[in-house]
Predict the 3D structure of the following.
Amino acid sequence: MMILYGCLWCGVILLASAATVKYIYPRYTAAKKSNDECEEEQPAKKSEPFFREWGTIVLIGIMVAFAVGCGMSVWRFKTEWISIAILLVTHTFLAVSALVDYKYYKIPNYCIIGMVAARAVLSVAEILVYGWPVFWDGIVECVITAVVGVIVLLTISKVTHGGIGYGDIKLMGGVAFLCGLRAFLYSFLLGMVFCAVLSIVLLTMKKKKAKDEVPMAPFIYMGFAVAIILGIC
């Protein structure tokens, strides 16, 4: 049963991610360009051949493993369906953002909007199931975490001259707004660890230079997934 739960969780994540990267995001960007023809847009950055050939395969493999592990972990540690729904929604939007960021070096705004909308819907469910006092305590934590977290990350971005992209900051704000303080901290800190390790490896292999950009969303996704697997999120 636990393995089945993990596979179902994985299926939802991959289906949403694949549909977005293959169909939704290209049409979204095409519509955006057609509605704003007067504004010149920078062309999307393309990945190097190494990443295009092997990186996508590795990322999808990591996502499959993490998604199955997250499903199994949620089956073990979580009993309330609203908590499970919040984690699944957050995981799905992070997976979509990770693939799009990896391919286009952008975080889709509709992912952030979707996270906010999902939080609004789930808030109604929380009020009906748990009552107003429990909901209020939780939403206050989420809002404060989102606001303070975004301010801190914006400050870090300014100090490091763009070391953290605005899209990544918005994504982390969405994680905080949906899941609260622990998810925000573990996603960011573990993501930074994964990013640092991979950057060292790529620099050693001379696949990247020190000033080259690295998409952050895949690492945020991995940090969030590891936190779920460990039962600390």
In short: DSSP finds eight helices and no strands in the chain.
